[in-house]
């Protein structure tokens, strides 16, 4: 049977709150390097570090304060009757000072990596849980920033509840097919021929259609893998359902493509649906490729060996990154939409776009411009030798049925 978490019962009486000393601070503190100490020095040293951590935290307590153990390496401190938020900051400074000193065990000096978050307010019992959650959130920030102490705000919890609810609803949205793909066409710059389309994910949430920027930041790494796998499966199934559909491309974050299961999924789905691999293109961002180039290149080589095409997305590096691209297993380069801003009326923008297109051709790649919104921009990009154009000038991202109607009408 799962044990419940600690229940905070706070005796911060109205009489105390009415005076100058009425603030309650809830602090969640954890010793983060216990596993490392155990591995390097043994359980006895790790145990001594845990005991020292508890002793140092107890030294902060005044009359009426409480130290509540959550586990052997994590504690909740209740600091009562503080003057104001600055008083809480002083307590945080005291924590930083206490844990700046290493623990000496014989000739060994051990560093205690404390990470603490604190939140404060005028706290009757019904507010203590909110303060605890805000303190835990601040502790997570301290862990991420590798700092001893962070001061949080209870309103941070209130503000983030809708985001967390969205993340919690994601798994059900995948199962109910509320996560769908819309397709934006890519046309030949010179002849207007339909070259393909990019799959763009959309979430039908309640009565709104959410764009990726509205929900991706709320998804953890596991949920993002689920989303990437869902998009790959759906795109390949859409290709299989109609042989007249043009090649479709899917944007996959480089870090996720390093997952061997995800890379293998592409080949398995293509074989399952008997789809010609050349009809499928994977897009990887320039930034992601440069960050993971050593690990990612073998993955891309394997995908191209299957016949899958690969495009470099959001390209803005220019000739200065030529040495990074030489010999990479790529088929196309998609220009960053910033090159197309302002219809290329600025001579510098036009020159940069032309250079990027020439760079793509120098590498033997197709050059595709994204974000084309006007006839002027389309004509100029075609004059520069661009191969493909994508943007609202031709069509917005369309649901699959609407995309099919659009392409059939163009015939």
Please characterize this protein's 3D structure.
The model is unreliable at 1-20 (pLDDT under 50). This protein has 411 residues and is of the alpha/beta class. Helices cover 46% and strands 24% of the residues. It is elongated, with a radius of gyration of 28 Å. Strand 4 (103-105) and strand 5 form a beta hairpin. It has two domains: 14-152, Reverse transcriptase/Diguanylate cyclase domain (Alpha-Beta Plaits, 2-Layer Sandwich); 164-410, TIM Barrel (Alpha-Beta Barrel), CATH 3.20.20. It has an eight-stranded mixed beta barrel, surrounded by six helices. It contains 16 helices and 17 strands.
Largest sheet: 8 strands, mixed, barrel
Number of domains: 2
Q: Compute the CA-based radius of gyration.
A: 28 Å
Strand order of the largest sheet: 8-9-11-12-13-14-15-16
* Span between termini: 64 Å
**Overall geometry:** elongated
